[in-house]
Amino acid sequence: MEFIPLQIATIVPNKKIPFDLYIHFKGQYLAYAEAGTAIPSAKLTKLALQQIARFYLLREHEANYQAFLEDILNDAIKNSQIQTETKVQLTEGAAATGIEAMQSEKASPAAYNITQKAAKSLREVIEQNPNTLKKIYGKHSDAMTDVIRHSLNVCALCTKLGRKQGLENALLDPLGTAALLHDIGLTKLSQQDKALFLKPKKHFTLDDHRIYKMHVTDAVAMLANKPYVTPDIIEMVRHHEENHAGTGPLKVKKLTLSECILSLCNNYDKRVLTQKIHARQALKELQIEEMGNYDLKLLQAFTSVLHDEGLLE
Predict the structure, then answer these.
(1) How many Å separate Cα 200 from the centre of its chain?
(2) pLDDT at res. 257
(3) Is 291 part of a structural domain of the chain?
(4) How far apart are CA 116 and CA 113, in angstroms?
(5) How confident is the model at residue 52 (pLDDT cuts 50, 70, 90)?
(6) Which among 190, 102, 120, 191 is positioned nearest to 159, based on CA atoms?
(7) Is the domain of 165 the same as that of 45?
(8) Distance CA 123, CA 157 (A)
(9) What SS3 class is residue 129?
């Protein structure tokens, strides 16, 4: 039997589940809840207090989980009675589940659909609820790795900046999906080289640059062999480290607006994450060090987003 993880945050209390759930304990997968049952809120709270962040389900039930997740996300987005924090928790849990699933060589169309749905839901939550970006951005969670937290941050920023730049949903949602997936290639680096993710790029050696750029190649390779991943997503992932000056790993200068937005948001969030600096300091460094690498009007629009959303406070 093959098990795949899902975030506990995506299981709604007292709602029947159409799949069996398991927990991983001492190297074993233990049955926790059967299909057709509902888990009380108190039990989910207890698991959270025990710092258990993931359930597991059989891969053969992944499509059932996808349908279940789409249903609860749709309900949450439409229901004005549900608190914004709960909506954020659900969408973040869906995004983290999708990212983790897409990191696997056995990633399925269901995993990709979960990631797409998470990106769309994240956009909808942000647009429908004021101050949501501030609730999402930079939030710490023991249930998520630094890579997943970074991917969520970038997705949220891309959503706001893309909309400010006039992107319609048909372009905005693929941008969000690419933002969630852009760093999945990091899983292919050796355990030692994965540490480069948290090393400020200003301190990279030539060898560091050579090794780190492999995560872009690996991410593209992981997506390119999956026919259900659209070419625009792959190209955005391919170019997420590039800029107009051609100083990225691929030396590409001609980028689409969506690719520029993803690159800029990725660049900014990595500064905050790796250097542990305040948003204002990260923005100041970005404006100085990346002058000429990004369109000035795009940098100004990004600054406006950070200011309007209260991220510079």
Answers:
(1) 20
(2) 98
(3) yes
(4) 5
(5) confident
(6) 120
(7) no
(8) 10
(9) coil
116 lies in the same domain as 264: yes
Q: Are residues 98 and 6 in the same domain?
A: no
The parent domain of residue 9 ranges over 1-62
Name the pLDDT band for 296 (thresholds 50, 70, 90): very high
Amino acid at 18: P
Instruction: Say whether 300 sits in a helix, a strand or coil.
Output: helix
Measure the CA–CA gap between 82 and 74, rounded to whole angstroms: 12
Residues 148 and 255 in one domain: yes
| DSSP 3-state of 29 | strand
Q: Mean pLDDT, the chain, as a whole number? A: 93
Compute the residue count for the chain. Answer: 313
Query: Residue 51, CB half-sphere, CA atoms under 13 Å: how many?
Result: 3
Give tens-digit pLDDT for 61-103.
999 999 999 999 999 999 989 999 999 999 999 999 999 999 9
pTM, to two decimals: 0.95
158 close to 261: Cβ distance less than 8 angstroms: yes
Taking the chain, what is the end-to-end CA distance rounded to the nearest angstrom?
Answer: 50
Tell whether 70 is covered by a domain.
no
Instruction: Examine residue 71 and state whether it is found in any structural domain, yes or no.
Output: no
Q: Is 221 domain-assigned?
A: yes
CA pair distance 127, 254, nearest whole angstrom: 30
Q: CB-hemisphere CA count at 13 Å for 66?
A: 18
